[in-house]
Amino acid sequence: MKIIFLGAPGAGKGTQSDIVSETYGIPAISTGAIIREAIAEGTEMGLAARRYTEAGELVPDAVVIGIIKERLSKEDCKNGFILDGFPRTTVQAQALDDMGVEIDLVISIEVSDQDIVKRMSGRRVCAACGASYHTVYKPSKAGEYCEKCGNELSIRKDDKPEIVLERLSVYHALTEPLKDYYKNKGKCVEVIGQEVLADTTALVREQLVKAFGR
Ligand code: ADP
Ligand code: ZN
Predict the structure, then answer these.
(1) pTM greater than 0.90
(2) Mean pLDDT of the chain
(3) Residue 138 C-alpha to ligand 2 middle, in angstroms?
(4) Which residue has its alpha carbon closest to ligand 1 atom 9?
């Protein structure tokens, strides 16, 4: 089971991929989360990546391709994996192909730009464990604190409105063309992102059952 989630920033890729990960017992790999972790730890890669993420721009292809190569070589990926936030450019998709990785299914979560901007204003994250919440759609059971680890929740620097607009324009210019890239391979399906998270999960589930028979 090798699955990719595509979609605009804030479309709900991360949330859905975590759910699919639990359902099927395969790892959910988020390049965004790996990069944020590196920034928090102050590693060399994190230091180099920071100015891109904070400006809403993409981290250079070579860096993220390196991250993914290393991650996919780990033992837990042998029965499959879910990619959330990778590939984001045609060069990255090509790199996956060149690694000999055969993707089974690409699910593109469709949400309008207008709704994305609305949603992002409510997103809250835990800087300690990486968990992600939404004040309205996915509130933490611990209120202002992370229900998993108890850390105080915060707003991601790149969720500021002007940065969100930049990320949306980067998405349309560089990432959206990947829908056609995978449609041409007969691998891409679209799911309309629903207001209620569980409704999107049900639509995603339908596509997975159709593709994998379970
Ligand atoms: P979202 O899906 O909400 O945009 P992510 O957590 O996936 O957020 O990514 C946050 C930031 O990390 C991106 O705006 C970008 O700067 C960087 N990033 C993540 N994945 C990639 C990638 N595959 N290629 C380039 N940059 C990436
Ligand atoms: Zn936490």
Answers:
(1) yes
(2) 96
(3) 14
(4) 32
